[in-house]
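Consider the tokenized backbone below.
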């Protein structure tokens, strides 16, 4: 049973409480949301420490920049004697050594989502971005646009937003923007995290099967989103993507106003005339009798949808009024999010891109966006199946289809091992074989060292290497850039032999 926090260790009940915990220890601190929360708690004056199984960039670097100590691995002795609250990430299992020590010492504890609501959001108006895809980019864009238009929102983003050089801000205003994840809250609370934030405004981007480790099928996920919509306050708003039939099919459940957006005829705010242009794209919206043209510095039709959701959000909240120029300027100044179509560097003429895609739909959309963004250049898709769902054979056909858009495909072996639940592992050599049978170039070497050797040998100047994983992938991005730079240096070096014949 989770301890009652009232009166224990000075834990307060709201953002502006005077008696915060003095020392918070976080289990799974390198999770994206956990890292953001760590920064917020530190800003509130708490000492923050934590542990993680395998810290990796950019979150490990972000914690180091904040001066927050992170233990690698979980051990009972990592839990400081002076800790008066433990925050438990949803990667932690009941048998975790530090969780066991926490219970042995009867320390107060909270899930990440509960701690965010209690200490960071408080009673503010919560804008939650939910859905299978696009949450991080849409949350970051919404936060940036609201700041640019004069609001002072707080925010918590599941990635490092380049405009803020971070992923969290407490904010001084009455709005708070946050990703609302459908994944369960903690080992002691199996309800989705998005319920904890009690949103008044919801951006609902998409709905597909995901999280095979906790949901048996799409209907089980659909039921959670339906409950979220039914629980919206009567004066709330839902901004929903009408292009997604699974989203559209749930909108009648909403207990409040719904404004839809999309390219299709079902949309209230309808997008038209999307086309790739320079480093981004242009498109038009038709909504409430107004037709407006927009330019965004983001590649892909999916990002035009994300931007349209933020346009609707800003207008509904009254920021920027109905004048287009301030809102267009805000969109145009968005600098993106690390690990979302992030160019990590160019070496020996090869562009190396890092992306978080780990679901077939996201992989396909990212490949399509890069093909359009780099027309006429050879595109490598390098994919590591890392999440439980990505490692599952349920998406064998889905990943085969998604990867068809690349000129060359390299597949790492599925990361780690499955939980002992009988789930079959994704067969990456079979995906490569299926693509080769269609006349495509595809290999599944397995280890990151083997992928790196192949890329260093065969990537040629002008190529684009798109590396997709929701983990660190053995820092293959920087290792590849180093190998390409050495290769280019060797090519450029003058011959040491006799130049005469």
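A designed sequence for it:
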């Amino acid at each position: 049973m989770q301890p009652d926090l009232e009166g224990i260790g000075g834990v307060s009940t709201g953002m502006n409480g005077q008696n915060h915990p003095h020392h918070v220890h976080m289990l799974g601190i390198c999770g994206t949301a956990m890292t953001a929360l760590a920064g917020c708690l530190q800003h509130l004056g708490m000492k923050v420490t934590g542990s993680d199984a395998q810290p990796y960039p950019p979150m490990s670097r972000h914690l180091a920049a904040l001066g927050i100590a992170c233990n690698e691995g979980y051990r009972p002795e990592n839990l400081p004697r002076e800790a008066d609250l433990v925050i438990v990430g949803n990667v932690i299992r009941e048998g975790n050594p530090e969780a066991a020590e926490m219970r042995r010492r009867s320390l107060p504890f909270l899930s990440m989502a509960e701690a965010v609501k209690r200490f960071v959001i408080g009673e503010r108006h919560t804008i939650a971005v939910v859905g299978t895809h696009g949450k991080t980019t849409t949350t970051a864009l919404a936060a940036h646009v609201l700041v640019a238009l004069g609001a002072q929102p707080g925010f918590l983003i599941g990635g490092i937003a380049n405009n803020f050089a971070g992923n969290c801000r407490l904010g001084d205003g009455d709005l708070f923007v946050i990703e609302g994840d459908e994944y369960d809250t903690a080992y002691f609370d199996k309800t989705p995290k998005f319920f904890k934030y009690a949103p008044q405004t919801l951006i609902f981007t998409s709905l597909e099967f995901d999280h095979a480790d906790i949901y048996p099928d799409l209907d089980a996920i659909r039921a959670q989103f339906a409950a979220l919509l039914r629980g919206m306050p009567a004066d709330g708003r839902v901004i929903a993507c009408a292009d997604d039939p699974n989203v559209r099919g749930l909108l009648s459940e909403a207990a409040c106003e719904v404004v839809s957006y999309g390219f299709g005829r079902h949309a209230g705010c309808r997008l038209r005339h999307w086309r790739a242009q320079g480093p981004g794209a242009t498109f038009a919206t038709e909504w409430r009798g107004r037709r407006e043209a927009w330019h965004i510095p983001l590649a892909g039709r999916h990002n035009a949808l994300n931007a349209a959701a933020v346009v609707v959000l800003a207008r509904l909240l009254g920021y920027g009024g109905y004048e287009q120029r301030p809102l267009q300027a805000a969109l145009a100044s968005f600098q993106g999010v690390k690990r979302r179509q992030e160019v990590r560097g160019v070496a020996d003429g090869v562009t190396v891109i890092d992306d978080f895609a780990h679901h077939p739909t996201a992989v396909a959309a990212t490949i399509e966006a890069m093909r359009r963004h780099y027309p006429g250049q050879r595109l490598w898709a390098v994919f590591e199946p890392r999440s439980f769902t990505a490692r599952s054979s349920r998406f064998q056909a889905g990943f085969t289809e998604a990867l068809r858009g690349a000129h060359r495909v390299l597949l790492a072996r599925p990361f780690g091992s499955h939980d002992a639940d009988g789930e079959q592992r994704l067969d990456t050599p079979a995906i490569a074989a299926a693509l080769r049978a269609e006349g495509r170039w595809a290999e599944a070497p397995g280890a990151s060292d083997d992928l790196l050797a192949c890329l260093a040998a065969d990537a040629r100047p002008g190529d684009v290497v798109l590396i997709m994983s929701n983990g660190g992938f053995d820092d293959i991005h920087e290792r590849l850039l180093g190998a390409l730079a050495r290769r280019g240096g060797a090519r450029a070096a003058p011959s040491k032999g006799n130049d005469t014949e």
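The radius of gyration is 23 Å.
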